[in-house]
Every structure is written in C-alpha cells, then in structure tokens.
Amino acid sequence: MKKLIYAATIILLISACKSNNSTLPIYGNKKPVTKTVNGKQVTDTIYQTIPDFKFVNQYGDTITGKNLDGKIYVADFFFTTCPTICPVMHRNMLPVYNEFKSNPDFRIISHSIDPKYDTVPVLKKYADKMGLSGNTWWLLHGDKDATYTIAKSYLTSVQEKNPQGNYVHDGYFILIDKQKRIRGTYMGTDPAEVEKMTADIKTLMAEPDQNPTK
Fold first, then answer.
1. Residues 6+ apart with CB under 8 A from 27
2. What is the pLDDT along the chain (214 residues), one digit of tens a residue?
C-alpha cells in the first residue's frame, strides 16, 4: 500500500510540473487557413493580432507597433485625472514593472483615453510621480479615434465622457505575446489577478516561440 501511495504522489508531482509549464491560451477571433506544405494540405489557425499604431510616449518619442516587435507586453487604458480605478490599477502594476524592468523583451503600455488633457508633459509628470524611468513602461498619447479604435482590438471597452461627465473604461490588463496575440486578460484592481498575470508572463516567456531575442 505504501508503494502505491508513493507512486501516486510521484505521478501527482509530475502532473503538477507539467501543468506549471503549460502554454497559455490564445484569445480573440480565429480562422482556419489551408495551405500546401511539401505537397500536402495543411490547415493552420490564424489568430487575431493587435494592428499597427502610432502614438507618442511620455518622453515625446513616437511609438509604433514596430517598437514592440519581439516584445511580450501588457496593455491597459487609463487617464491621469481618473479618481477611481486607474490609481489602483497602476499601483498594482508597479510590482510587475519592478520585476521585469531589466528584461529587454518586456514592455508595459498605457493608452490615455483623454488625449486633450493628457498631453506629453502631463504624462511625463504622471510617470515621474510613479517613479518610472527608462523604456519599460510607456504612457501613450495619441489621436482619440485611433486610441478608441485600437481598444477594440484588445477586446476592451472605452467611452468618451458620459452624461455624468466621466470617462468610462474597462479595468483590464491585457497580456500580448511576441506575435501580437492576446494571451490573457486580468482585472487590474485585483491584486490576486495581477499576481496571476505575473506568473503567466513567466509562463509565456518560457514558451518555445517566445524565446529571448538573440
């Protein structure tokens, strides 16, 4: 009996290790594409990706999708005068920033949904207040329509001022892989969700097609 229990324990441990090393799911729309490879018909799946964009960060530098080529990154939407969820979200993001800021293959991007007020100097002041430096975390200013449109690609929702005079947006952090596919969404106001995101970032970094840049 003891041998059976020992064997069962070993199997459970092996299963746990396999589970910890599992790949993350891929979210968003997908479609099958059939092509010929070496004379054989092969069906592949094409997943939704984040389209190219052009914004300006807190340093006044132009940032496009190409600046994120070969990067795993987390995106969110906010505005600097937000009195509710934004401060909580970004406080929760700071430990993530601190953990990965020395990794050249990781970025955080925060899109302002109030570009009229959140000018580059305002974003820089906000970044300085949070203690951000370097290029790990970019606060992005850009055309309002472009920002609101790209939010849909991240499967998140943002709105202009409602009748109460407030901006409305989802409080999610969205994890994107090096192929610009959505690999996870996490409620930014929930510390447990952010901890899960941190673990998922490490899992994603370990996936074969997310190998570090040579």
1. 48, 155, 181, 182, 183, 184, 185
2. 334 333 333 333 333 333 345 899 999 887 776 667 777 766 667 888 999 999 999 999 999 999 999 999 999 999 999 888 999 999 999 999 999 999 999 999 999 999 999 999 999 999 999 999 999 999 999 999 999 899 999 988 776 655 555 666 779 999 999 999 999 999 999 999 999 999 999 999 999 999 876 5
> By CB neighbour count within 10 A (0-12 exposed, 13-18 middle, 19+ buried), where does 27 fall?
middle
Which secondary-structure segment (H or E) carries 34?
Answer: strand 30-37
- Homologous superfamily of domain range 49-207: Glutaredoxin (3.40.30.10)
Specify the residue for token string 């000018």: 119
Nearest to 174 by CA among 84, 107, 79, 100: 107
As a whole number of angstroms, the distance between CA 31 and CA 21 comes to 27
Answer whether 102's CB lies under 8 Å from 137's CB.
Answer: no
Q: What is the pTM (predicted TM-score) of this model?
A: 0.83
Residue 138 buriedness (CB in 10 A; 0-12 / 13-18 / 19+): buried
CA separation for the pair 120, 130 (Å, rounded): 15
Helix spans in 23-105 (H): 85-100
β-pair partners for 200:
none
Cα angle, residue 173 at apex, residues 16 and 159 outer, rounded to 5°? 150
